[in-house]
């Protein structure tokens, strides 16, 4: 997950303030977003069909949690369609602002999760 993609996902869910923050968050905050999103995808609530939530939803929920310090629902339940990106913009956004993967490995899976968040997102 890159800062750019997380920021765009947040905009789609109506989270403008968190979207702006995601572009400039620290590497540690980005690793926490990734760790919390990983937990949400693997252990968090499932969809009505039984599958895991979408990556955009997980990364947005995780970013709001890391930014605000507590979990909550997103402002929009459904994503608002944004204008399509050019291929160039899409590639740039996907590769700009990636976490330090070696450091993320050292921090371990689910880095950034808290008991409060686990209880909030219990299945």
Would you kindly provide a written description of the structure presented here, covering whatever features stand out?
This protein has 123 residues and is an all-alpha fold. It has one domain. Helix content is 59%, strand content 0%. It has helices at 3-12, 16-24, 27-43, 55-68, 87-95, 101-107, 115-120. α1 packs across α4 and α3 packs across α4. The longest helix has 17 residues, at 27-43. 37% of the residues are buried.
Structural topology:
Elements: H1 3-12, H2 16-24, H3 27-43, H4 55-68, H5 87-95, H6 101-107, H7 115-120
Descriptive tags:
single chain, 123 residues, mainly alpha, 7 helices, globular
Mean pLDDT across all amino acids: 89
SS field, number of helical segments: 7
Estimated share of beta-strand residues: under 5%
Determine the oligomeric state from the structure: single chain
Question: Distance between the terminal alpha carbons, to the nearest Å?
Answer: 24 Å
Summarize this entry quickly:
With 123 residues, the protein is an all-alpha fold. It contains seven helices and no strands. It is globular.
């Amino acid at each position: 997950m890159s800062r750019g993609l997380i920021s765009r996902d947040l905009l789609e869910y109506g989270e403008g303030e968190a979207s702006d923050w995601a572009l400039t968050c620290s590497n540690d905050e980005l690793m926490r977003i990734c760790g919390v999103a990983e937990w949400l995808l693997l252990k968090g609530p499932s969809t009505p069909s039984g599958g895991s939530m979408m990556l955009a939803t997980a990364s947005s929920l995780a970013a709001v949690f890391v930014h605000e310090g507590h979990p909550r629902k997103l402002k929009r339940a459904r994503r608002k369609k944004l204008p399509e990106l050019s291929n160039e913009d899409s590639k740039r956004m996907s590769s700009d602002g990636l976490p330090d993967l070696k450091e993320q490995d050292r921090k371990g899976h689910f880095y950034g999760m808290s008991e409060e968040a686990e209880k909030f997102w219990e299945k």
